[in-house]
Amino acid sequence: EFAPKKGFGQNFLINPAIPQRIAESAARDSDTCILEIGPGIGALTAELASRYEKVVAVEIDSALIPVLEYTLSEFDNVTVAHEDFMKLPLADFINENFNGKKVSVCANLPYYITTPIIMHLLEDGNASLFESITVMIQTEVAARFTAKAGSSEYGAITAALDYYGTVRKLFDVSAGNFHPAPKVSSSVVQICPYKTPAYDVSDEKFLFEVISAAFGQRRKTLVNTLSAVSGGRSKTELAELLENLGFRADIRGEKLSVSDFVKLSNALFELNKSSN
Ligand code: SAM
């Protein structure tokens, strides 16, 4: 029998009702194609293959490849790729496998790399490749993904996700539905990327630098955390800039929505440019 590997974050779904429900949520139309990350032994893959036009599943563990060949043998619309998802050149991979068709992502993610996988799906112009991204993640991480600005769960990752699209929680899944049972509870969330950029940002890379500076030291006010991204501007100058933009001089980064961050980073970007 196959022994699940902790290092690859292997917790397999054993209650068939769960992959059915996840697969149903993955896309509206049956002519959608699905990219799955980490098919495991194929529980979710089979549900996806029976509902949608084509499934391409990317699995890192070589020991699972023959298992998947066996469990998925009745489907002729599934391809299993033995790859590390993090190393895939995503745009090329999508083009080669789906040839211009509508693509959605659906996965029960390995929890040790949830955020890197999500960012790989969204960064570098990748977000527009997908109609939607439906993934099972830790409930605690789901709370951060869907947090409102100003709440204790709100952070750099929330602002980044809000920049790329809308995020909502679909349902919770308790640990008993997996083998082995994870120590945490799980939730399914759905991200719908914006088709065209929703925010008018001067420099995307700089926006993310400002966001990570703002959350680097959560307890400090923005005036104190922005020095690294403001070319050594004084606190008085920064306080003035914040007030000119309509914020309080003593505001903390965690209060800023993504559109506030866009406004702030655009202003700082212009200021840095003009003083160079
Ligand atoms: N989809 C299956 C299920 O729901 O029962 C398995 C989910 S399990 C939580 C995560 C899967 O992701 C495992 O099969 C694991 O081997 C695979 N995995 C881990 N890291 C990966 C990576 N970097 N690229 C591709 N697959 C990976």
Pick out its properties:
elongated; alpha/beta; seven-stranded mixed β-sheet; two-stranded antiparallel ribbon; single chain
What does this structure look like?
This protein is an alpha/beta fold. The chain is built from eleven helices and nine strands. The protein has helices spanning 17-26, 43-51, 64-71, 90-98, 114-122, 139-145, 156-164, 204-216, 222-225, 235-244, 258-274, and strands at 12-13, 33-37, 54-59, 78-82, 103-108, 133-138, 165-173, 178-179, 186-193. The strands form two sheets. It has a seven-stranded mixed beta sheet, sandwiched between helices. The protein has a two-stranded antiparallel sheet with strand order 1-8. β3 (54-59), α3 and β4 form a beta-alpha-beta unit. α1 crosses α2 (43-51) and α8 packs across α11 (258-274). The longest helix is centred in the C-terminal third of the chain and has 17 residues, at 258-274. It is elongated and about 65 Å long. The relative contact order is 0.11. The protein binds S-adenosylmethionine. S-adenosylmethionine binds at residues 8-13, 37-40, 43-44, 58-61, 64, 84-86, 108, 110. S-adenosylmethionine binds next to β1, α2 and β3.
